[in-house]
Amino acid sequence: MDYRREDQNQENNNQQNNNSNEQNQYNSKADEPNSYKQEEERRVVWNSDDTRDDSDKVDAPVISKQNSQPNQTIYEAGETAASVEESREKNNNKTKKRRAASWLSPILGGVIGGGLVLGVFPYLPNQQEENTPITENASSGQEQSPNFTKTSASKNNSDSIADMVEELSPSIVGISNIQNQQSSFGFENNSNKGVESGTGTGIVFKKDGDKAYIVTNNHVVEGANKVKVSLFDGSDTEAKLVGSDALTDLAVLEISSKGIDSVASFGNSSKARPGDQVIAIGNPLGHDFSRTVTEGIISGINRSVDVSTSQGSWEMNVLQTDAAINAGNSGGPLINSDGQVIGINSLKISETGVESIGFAIPSNDLQPIVDELLEKGNVERPFLGVSMLDMERVPQNYQEGTLGLFGDQLNKGAYIDDVQSGSAAQKAGIKSGDVIVGINGKSVTNTGDLKNILYKETKIGDKVTMDVLREGKKQTFSVTLSQKEEES
Questions:
Q1: 93: which DSSP letter?
Q2: Cβ 331 vs Cβ 199: under 8 Å
Q3: How confident is the model at residue 184 (pLDDT cuts 50, 70, 90)?
Q4: How many CB atoms sit inside 10 A of residue 352's CB?
Q5: End-to-end CA distance of the chain
Q6: How far is residue 412's CA from residue 436's CA, in Å, rounded to a whole number?
Q7: Alpha-carbon gap, residue 159 to 172, rounded angstroms
Q8: Window from 72-76, 200-204, 369-373, 397-401 with minimum mean pLDDT
Q9: Is the dihedral of CA 55, 282, 71, 229 positive or negative?
């Protein structure tokens, strides 16, 4: 499946990112044997001068980058693996069993940490991408964060869209991702102020004394040497990155509160229903069309979209809308008929024959993440310490001949390619070649299942039970989940 993000790019920046991405040996679809490549193609576009589908799950592995047009970067669905921090070179003293699995080398690599890591790619706002298919992670009746302004849904629905736009527009800002140019010799040229490599949108959600805070998409600001914010009054100001999280695609910026007269109010996204009227506000195609308004409805709720990020693959819960989500809309608000922000626009599907399928991160899902980013600057997650691959990507003859699997055991689970030394998995006795098929009594059919259970249902320090197939026999291991920093 082919996923694409469209961004306003500088050609020099494209070339820089192409060179960087080629160095990641695990992100190249071309390395995977043709017989194991995905057959169905689907494009999903990030909307940072940039976006993620519906009730039928679409598989979205790891992505590799390649150019198509001067101001467009194409990412193709590639192998399902990656690293948490950096690409790890293959160990020279592989065992015979690992050599027998040489077909894995272009697919696997990386460590599951800070969360399970399944895919990595250079993920810049001007050339960001994401894979997007579909699951569930609905928030219901979640208590609202004190960091967000909340209003009761008491507005008269007869209020015009123009009235809502007029009220919200001062809290909508433009965001520019500024990056240093790289010289032809491979080092950064700091003699200038950098170039704008991508643009997006942000929402002012909090004002505290002389500071104001903006929420946007991580892919809008990722890789930036400097972030510039364009305010409603036409002025520009530099922003400080408070914190970001690639898996949930959220980031928080801090700016001076000077010139900020209002903040956006957030509603309860769990009350959204298919058919509800919504509007989107953003900066498509850069700041020349700032605060463009589009109208539509909620097309679906609790959609699950598989995305690949610089921290690995992730299954994201989203709202689906047919309101136009254009390049540059990323980070902008999806607003209900009461004038409340119920989502942050992030993704869309770009495919021939497919129109008006866009996605927004629900407000109830983003608020606890934003709270943690404000407090800690990052999101802490349990660390397992393995690199892995969906079993359905493993050739059947390898499953049967080398792993000793048969019958119903085939094509199910998360194949463990490598176990990091000193990790929680190694301490528990899990080895390379094992296949995880269950955790805490819940079935694991692929790496996404494992990740979602670990990240959404457990925390650091929890002890979990893992059902593992080893040479065709099921074994159970007790694993105490740790924090990444505790492991080497």
A1: T
A2: no
A3: low
A4: 7
A5: 35
A6: 9
A7: 20
A8: 72-76
A9: negative
Res 105 pLDDT > 50: no
Spatial distance between the Cα atoms of 163 and 143, rounded to a whole number of angstroms: 28
Strand partners, 303: 318
What pTM does this model have?
0.64
Locate 437 and state its tokens.
């098929």
Mind giving me the DSSP string for 96-163?
HHHHHTGGGTTT------SS--------BTTB-B-----------SPPPPTTSEE--S-S-TTS-HHH
Q: What are phi and psi of 413, to 5 degrees?
A: 110, -175
- Asked if residue 321 lies in contact with residue 296, where contact means CB atoms within 8 angstroms, the answer is yes
Neighbours of 149 (CB within 10 A): 18
Query: Which has the closest alpha carbon to 63: 3, 127, 108?
Result: 3
Helix (H) or strand (E) holding 312: strand 312-321
pLDDT at 72: 36
Pairing of strands 265-266, 149-150: parallel
- What pLDDT is stored for residue 288 in this prediction? 77
Element (H or E) spanning 368, and its range? helix 363-376
Tokens encoding 95: 């065992």
Six-digit token string for 200: 């997006």
Interval 58-73 mean pLDDT: 33
Enumerate the active-site residues: 219, 249, 330
pLDDT confidence of residue 130: 37
Q: Mapping DSSP to helix (H, G, I), strand (E, B) and coil, where does residue 391 land?
A: helix
**Total Cβ atoms within 10 A of residue 237:** 16
What confidence category does residue 52 fall into, taking pLDDT thresholds of 50, 70 and 90? very low
User: Contact, 114 vs 381, CB < 8 A?
Assistant: yes
For 15, half-sphere exposure in the C-beta direction (CA atoms, 13 angstrom radius) is 9
φ, ψ for residue 360 (rounded to 5)? -130, 145
Contact 328, 346 (CB under 8 A): no
Q: Which CATH class is domain 380-488?
A: mainly beta
Spatial separation of the C-alpha atoms in residues 328 and 287, rounded to whole Å: 8
- Alpha carbon of 467 to those of 429, 440, 476, 478: distances in Å? 12, 8, 5, 9
Q: Show me where the domains of the chain are located.
A: 380-488
Tokens of 198: 């991508």
Q: What angle do CA 260, 262, 265 make, to 5 degrees?
A: 135
